[in-house]
Amino acid sequence: MPHGKPAGQPCAQLLPDMRCAVFGQPGRPAFCGGLRPSAEMCGNSRDAALHWLTRLEVLTAPSTVAA
Fold first, then answer.
1. Nearest residue to 23 via CA among 38, 31, 33
2. Which parts of 1-67 are beta strand (E)?
3. What is the CA radius of gyration of the chain?
4. What is the CB-side half-sphere exposure of residue 29 using CA atoms within 13 A?
5. Positive or negative CA dihedral for 7, 59, 28, 35?
6. Distance between CA 57 and CA 34 in Å, rounded?
7. Nearest Cα residue to 53 out of 62, 34, 40, 64
């Protein structure tokens, strides 16, 4: 994903069993290695984690305001 990943879209490296295909690989994006899960992020279910990550994507999305 040389141009990034659109918010709300699964990572292209996400395997059908929800594991990362590039985990531990030298070419793994720095962002992925820098993301450190926490109890707050993960919550008590997959849905809670996805909600947290979706909110993070929205809050960190580049501005789309036209000049």
1. 33
2. none
3. 13
4. 13
5. negative
6. 15
7. 40
Cα 38 to Cα 8: distance, rounded to the nearest angstrom:
21
Tokens standing for residue 43: 């919550």
Measure the CA–CA gap between 21 and 15, rounded to whole angstroms: 6
Exposure of 8 in the CB half-sphere (CA atoms within 13 A): 1
The overall average pLDDT reported for the chain is: 82
The Cα angle at residue 54 between residues 62 and 2, in degrees rounded to 5? 50
Give the CA distances from residue 4 to residues 18, 55, 56, 62, in Å, rounded to whole numbers and listed in that order: 19, 17, 15, 11
The total number of residues shown for the chain amounts to: 67
DSSP-assigned beta bridge partners for residue 14 = 20
* Residue range 16-41, pLDDT digits in tens: 998 999 998 998 888 787 878 889 88
- 0.85 exceeded by pTM: no
